[in-house]
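quick one, two chains, predict together pls
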Amino acid sequence: MKSQSDFAVGLVLSGGGAKGAYHVGVLKALLELGARVDAIAGASIGALNGAILASAPSLKEGVERMDELWNTLASSPPLAPNFPAYLGLLVEVGLRVKGFDHLVKLGNIARDAGLKVPMIGNLLDDGLLSSSPLHRLMDVYFDPDALDNGLPLYVSVFKSRGGLEDLLSVVMADSGLKDSPASEFLHIQKLPKSQQKDALLASAAIPLLFSHRHMNDSIYRDGGMGGWQRMQGNTPVTPLLQAGIKTLLVTHLSDGSLWSRHDFPDATILEIRPQSAIQREGGFKDLLGFDPRKIPSWMEQGYEDTLQCVGRVIDVTTARNELRLSELTLSDSDNQFKRLDQNLSEAMARLR
Amino acid sequence: MTELSPISPSDEICKVLPCLPEKFIVDFANGIDVVNDHLRVQRARNGFSARLYDGFTGQGQRRQAEINASLVDSVEASLQWLTELSRSLARSNLAMTHVKNRVAMIQTALIDLTHYSADTRQQIERLSFELNERCTQLERDIKRIDLVQRANIEIDLVFSKWEAGKFASFSLAGRCYAVLEELRWGAFGDLYRNGSIGERATHLEILSNRAISQLMRDTDEASTKRLDTTQWLAPPHGRDLLPDAQDALAYLGDWSCIIQSPFVHAICNCGHKLPLRMPRICSSERLVEGLVSDIFRVNE
């Protein structure tokens, strides 16, 4: 007997900061195409989008909520500068340029003035941006109670070994020297309610920009950092496969993502990749590009790319199914004709 | 939270999704979009520093490997699908051949059926014709049998009347004439006229024999015993005789001719001069022969 998971479809939402608007377009198109989603895995912004989707009573309602949220984000960016951390960054930058003493003094002056200027060693843990506005948005659009009855949601988180070491591991991975440690995957519904929101924010805690999260005596950061070279953390397919889901819809929020479907030979994977450049200005400008110009364009691009990528598969599958159906019909017809042939032969034998 | 539970093939999901996307089909179709994405990035990163960076980090090689793998997937899927399509086409061609064979078989059967139908129609027409002929013949036979039966009954009836003395008011020859005349106008006459030459002769022979027999009884003489003609023509005497019997005979024989039917003329015109061709003496055989000849052969 086949299990339900043989027919279940998992949705993988990769991380990519403000480019998460792309997910809205993707889901709008999937909704139009009549696709079903039985479980969700997300990293970073994908985790936050996934949480909204999973806690909605239906896919349609979830997409509408995401659309509303991202239109709100376009009109009022969720990221507020974390001034103490910003000053800390200036200290660090100045440290290299102008000498340690002067900048330490500058830091001390700032602290004396009542500002929370972090010590240089803590800079990478605190982050340049405050996630408080994001918290507030999550409070509006994310319903932890509804999530319990919603779709299974998995998020990737990266267990921090210290801010500097985390950054170094990513840099080394990006330069091809050594891959970063693998991300961990959390089944949100299996966490205590008090930890669920922390886990989601931890998944989106981009180092340097957002502060890390503490859970169970460990520090966690953006799940996209783990398994950097093969996007193990940023495109979290593994938890869905471990849950027995073999059919996956995978979205990417970067041009030419080096995540490879060939690493998962047992799964049927449909990737939704940008068919034109998803990059607008590049780097952190796109990552934090919550502005009314970029968000609608990413939403539109996600919609168009999904129609193309999924539509192509649907067309081919439809053609194949029609071929099979015609063969079955032909076979049935042939069997029917065989009986008629026999009857005709018998009738003609009587006549002759 | 939604739990994944086992389902059986009879569940609704299996009816809604009879054929979930096959992996090789998804790899085949989706691989094009994957390759497009990588190629676009690959083309964009053609600057020196980008090429140096990609070469140093190995990303260029990994991207190319990914493109290659997707292309290989596509080729393999194409091969698989082409193979399946070829098999399907072969099955379709085979099915078309079967259809053509069936059409040929049906045409053959139709030809046989048409011939059979035409033959059957001819047989039915022939049978109908023969049956019609047979029925007509039977009808004729039945009519003839009926006529023979009625003629026989009539002969029996008329001769029984003669035997019973109903013609006693007539002369001996007149009795015979009256009987023959009555039979000529009745069923016997019809039977005689519709018979062949041989049949006519037979009918007349039977009739003659019975008339001779009755005359032998009336005269109490042999059939060859010649009597004077006046004896044959002499009116009877006695009681209970019909007074106008001779007039009736004259009326019956008004058609007679003295030359062509001398016997009848002599009987019907009793008392007049005998015709020259009327024998002056004759036996009962000769009398019957003459009367039969006058009455039945007068119009031949």
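The first helix of chain A runs from residue 21 to 32.
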